Here is the input.
Amino acid sequence: MKNFMLFVGVILCYFLLTYLDKTYITTSSKIFDFLAKDYPNEAVQNYMESQKKWWWVSYTLLPLLTGIKILLVAFCLNFIKLLDLPGLEYIKFSDLITLVLIAESVFIIAGLYKFVNFYWIDTDYTLENLQTYYPISLLNIKEYISTEKWLAYPLQLVNLFELFYWGILAWGIWELSDKKIGFPKSFGLTALTYGFGLLFWTGVVSFMILNMQL
Here is the structure.
């Protein structure tokens, strides 16, 4: 029940962020201006109409995609029990789910940061700016590193919020082990499990983007 309530809370926060984004940031006028440069007016109008008709799809997919993500992260972390370390053998999968749900608050804060940035600070933005922005990440300075599109996702993941996320996961493992392992070691376990899974996923996404460019 605790995990269910946490999950509902996370989804409600994401619903709010999605509403704020669609209402105040990724507005119809921004989308129209972006598409009008490359497509005829009739095609853009048809697209806008379809967006209005199917507005509910993104809200419907949110719980499913978020749930899958949380399960996959917990699945990766669950591999720490294979290691012969004190305190880890009694960790339950449900405990890891709770930990991942708590850590998800980091990305909710990141979404709120992005909204504040474009609504109050960087108000003179385009849809291109939105697509190439992630709070406090290397993606925001990619022109100084590389302009290759396939590097956008890895650069997005190198950000301060992701580091905080790792820190919360490491703290949770440290707590769940009854502090029988040190925090540095729990951070290493996070890197060994979740970090390896994230690296694999990043490679898959980057490979798909690279193939689409060919």
